[in-house]
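Database export, one record per block. Field names are fixed; values are copied verbatim from the stored entry.
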Amino acid sequence: MNIKKLSYNQKRKIMLACIAIVLLLITILACATLIYLLYGEALFSSPKVQLKKAENYAAIVNDTPKEGIVFVGDSIIELYDLKKHYKDPLYINRGISSNKSADVLNRLQTNVIDLNPKIIVLHVGTNDIGHKIPYNDYISNMDKIIKELKGKLPNCKIIVDSIFPTVTLDNYNSKNLTKVRDNYTILNFNQGLINLCITNNVTYLDIHHHLLKGEKLNKTYTIDGLHLSESGYNVVTREISYCISNLLENDKKAPNN
């Protein structure tokens, strides 16, 4: 098409059509962004998606190293780049975003126990709080998880990680994520975990304390007020590494070794 030969009205119509297309694309992008902010977590971590991830983990069990260190839990674990932070193929990630304690319990056999790990790092709870699962139901699920692991993996070391604090950043996504995950409730759930670990004689790891600034999550440790930044995961790696080293060292010193 030779633009120079077009009349003024034709050029005007083409220009208006281009503007209309650009505005339409901007509107679609804005709507998609709004939908993601409102429902993003649910869209990408629906029960069906979570179940599929659990099935995928189960399908590769025979190709996964055994007697390793298995991390199991929610998005805090799934987003944790173990290969980068530990550089060891025996560190195995079995996190699934949006998992609650009941979800971890349901997939425990195929995703964790079948790997016959020597150490398990268990981190789950913020979604129980987010979905308003009653405290007693959460503690009951965690007790069942611990008891099943101890019963089927008697030689395995179990580390129960604290639920991490939150902080509300100045954007809608952060406000949406943290409004139902208040730090008072998190502290209450963590106290229940402490008591549970004492009763079951397993290790409670208080990373929560190391992520605080005042009474809230340090803003430099998070990307949205709930999930961790790289510097936040550096803190987590430091504390978990120290805990694992102590467990292995104490195991060597045990009289039966």
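Remark 1: Residues 101 and 141 are 6 Å apart (CA to CA).
Remark 2: The chain has a mean pLDDT of 91.
End of record.
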